[in-house]
Amino acid sequence: LFNEKVHNRLLVVDRADLDYQTTKEFNHFVPGSVDGTDNTRELVAQMNDPTRKLVITTIQKLNTAVSGGRFAHAMEGIREGRVVFIFDECHRSQFGDAHRRIRAFFPSAQMFGFTGTPIENHLGELWSLFRVLNPGLLGSEERFRERFAAPIERDPRSPQRDVLRRLIAPFVLRRTKAEVLSELPPRTEIVQMIEP
């Protein structure tokens, strides 16, 4: 991730409160490790600064930056650069147009996605993930529904389940809580009495 050939590294969250909170958490464990963004102008300035290691921003700010308008000139110089995007909670599909604009704007971008939501919750969420991270792999939403979702929902033992699993296997890193428990900091409990 921290390779000089990579021009920008962005952790993209989907809400402004997570922007601040995520930056605070990163810097709590390793002070100065990341930069947050208060507004789109600041994001554009940080993306044009090659000394930035990792910038945390919101999808809304990033979408504004790539949508032309007043930031078009400043963004044009970094458009062709190699950019790594890490989308937090990427299973959420309400930002589909923004994801498409970001991908179209940065043709050399590499996309990663994090989600704590098991993909078994709903196969439509799996399609949403791959629509952002690897467009076309699972086909259109309608085709995915016909080929995978409907047969698997009708019969969880459908052969299509194994076909789907093999298709996405190279792109999924799955770790359970038990596997990462030793890497987590000790749990902190604060008990505070509240008077009625």
Quick tags:
196 residues; five-stranded parallel β-sheet; 9 helices; alpha/beta
Spatial sequence of strands, sheet with the most strands: 2-3-1-4-5
Tally of helical runs: 9
Show unreliable segments. none
Helix content bin = 40-55%
Shape: globular
- The quaternary organization reads as single chain
Give Rg in angstroms.
19 Å
Q: Strand tally, please?
A: 5
Structural class determined from secondary elements = alpha/beta
User: What's the mean pLDDT score?
Assistant: 83
What about the largest sheet?
5 strands, parallel
Through-space gap between termini: 51 Å
Would you list the SSEs in sequence order as H and E? EHEHEHHEHEHHHH
Strand content: 5-15%
Characterization of the model:
The chain is built from 9 helices and 5 strands, in the order βαβαβααβαβαααα. The chain has helices at 16-29, 40-47, 59-66, 72-76, 96-105, 123-133, 141-154, 159-168, 177-180; strands spanning 8-13, 35-36, 55-58, 83-87, 110-113. Strands 2-3-1-4-5 form a 5-stranded parallel β-sheet. The longest helix has 14 residues, at 16-29. The N and C termini lie far apart (51 Å).
